[in-house]
Amino acid sequence: MTTPRTTRKSVPAAATAVALGAGLLVAVAPAPAHAAAGATLPFTSVEAETATHTGSRIGPDHTQGTLASEASGRQAVRLNAGQRVQFTVPRAANAVTVAYSVPDGQSGSMDVYVNGQRLDRTLPVTSKYSYVDTPWIPGARTHHLYANARMLLGRDVRAGDTVAFQATNVQVTVDVADFEQAPGAATRPSGSVSVTDKGADPTGQGDSTQAFREAIAAAQGGTVWIPPGEYRLTSSLNGVQNVTLQGAGHWHSVVRTSRFIDQAASSGNVHIRDFAVIGEVTERVDSSPDNFVNGSLGPGSTVSGMWLQHLKVGLWLTGNNDNLVVENSRFLDMTADGLNLNGNARGVKVRNNFLRNQGDDALAMWSLNAPDVNSVFENNTITQPNLANGIAIYGGTDITVRNNLIADTNALGSGIAISNQKFLDPFHPLSGTITVDGNTLVRTGAMNPNWNHPMGAVRVDSYDSAIDAQVRITNTTITDSPYSAFEFVSGS
Ligand SMILES: [Ca+2]
């Protein structure tokens, strides 16, 4: 949610037991066997605190604004120069992504060792994308203390091999590492229009904006091919409709821009897949469209297999996005939301995505101007949203939140919030049936400094109006919550 949050009156504890509204039905059913929660992911994560190391373990901690509190598992390993953390590789891999933090204002690199042998390549680390301040949000402190860095190892490693990272010239706190087998580059689809045929520079030096625009115009009804390489765009694309944008895989085709698509309307049939969009967003400016997609992709569109990083928001969706599917993508290090259906979403499905280190709600529906209707967040894995909720449903009609895995929320956040907090008008409150089924919540919920009481792992919240909807919460698994598992909050 990238609107300012109003300061909430402290609610006396006794008031939370008051009935929320005449139409509210809450069913907490026993848990039968059900599908495993979360996304099916191509990588396996290993926590640094479970690895061997010569540094010092920090945490566990749930205090707002601390490195340990923002860490996956609420623990991490701090390395001073010369110290290392060594992971036992859990699966065949040739690539690794490391979540880390370095002190504010600093940057450097870590040496990388495979089975004790130092690689020629190093892993750069920087504080550039961390330490986000949002003083207009009451209760916020400096947050977003981590960032992610990825690398191809240049060789294959097997389960049981070791990969170690050694701090060299800066203190590094290592949180978690993802090991995976990155596939080779895909080949160009026949009949496609390559951006390089239109003059795009795959070295990342030249400005490829115009080449992308020309390729999209030339490929109407067909496919734009983004070959392996890095492409720098200096302004956003618009008028994108009736076209497929396809890369060779997100490890191979990388677009460097903080604003990829910015358009209020589209006739739709836009398909975006298999490349990375990595921005340079270091602050959060709510009036700027520093997003992968800002606005509308039009009806019948899809986003799949994308790597999205260092943006403000992944997808901030308004206008017509009927039946949009967003799937199999990774959202890392946004300074605000991962994805927000900002009203008027119809039949949107967001499924099987991985979201780590968002600076606000990881996945949100906010029914502003027009309701979000018949839309679904399912089988997503969400970890470490460091301000606000894992999943937040602010209003809307017939919404489903199913089989998601959410872990390690921080200040101002629940694992899942079902809320009539409106933020702005015209707001469309919860109506119809709100299905919350099969979700797993690990260490979610946090103290809210504005309320002076905690937010629970699952929060049903009649903040601005009574809830006149059926809210069905079933088959929920909640473990290690620092505060309440379920919380029902009356209005002010
Ligand atoms: Ca950790």
Account of the 3D structure:
This protein is mainly beta and 492 residues long. The chain has 2 domains: 8-39 and 184-489, 3 Solenoid (Pectate Lyase C-like), CATH 2.160.20; 43-180, Galactose-binding domain-like (Jelly Rolls, Sandwich), CATH 2.60.120. Strands 1-43-38-35-32-29-26-23-20-17-15-13 form a 12-stranded parallel beta sheet, covered by helices on one side. Strands 14-16-18-21-24-27-30-33-36-39-44 form an 11-stranded parallel beta sheet. It has a 9-stranded parallel beta sheet with strand order 19-22-25-28-31-34-37-42-45, with no helix packed on it. β8 and β9 form a beta hairpin. Mean pLDDT is 93; it is low at 2-32. The chain binds calcium ion (CA).
The N- to C-terminal Cα distance equals 20 Å
Assembly of the depicted chains: single chain
Q: Residue ranges: pLDDT <50 for 5 or more in a row?
A: 2-32
Strand order of the largest sheet: 1-43-38-35-32-29-26-23-20-17-15-13
Number of strands: 45
Q: Main β-sheet: number of strands, strand sense, barrel status?
A: 12 strands, parallel
Inertia-based shape: globular
CATH fold type of the largest domain: Pectate Lyase C-like
Highest CATH level, the class of the largest domain:
Mainly Beta
What molecules are bound to this protein? calcium ion
Q: Helix segment count? A: 2
Structural class by SSE content: mainly beta
The average pLDDT value, as a whole number, equals: 93
CATH architectural label of the largest domain? 3 Solenoid
Residue share in β-strands: 35-45%
Report the C-alpha radius of gyration, rounded.
22 Å
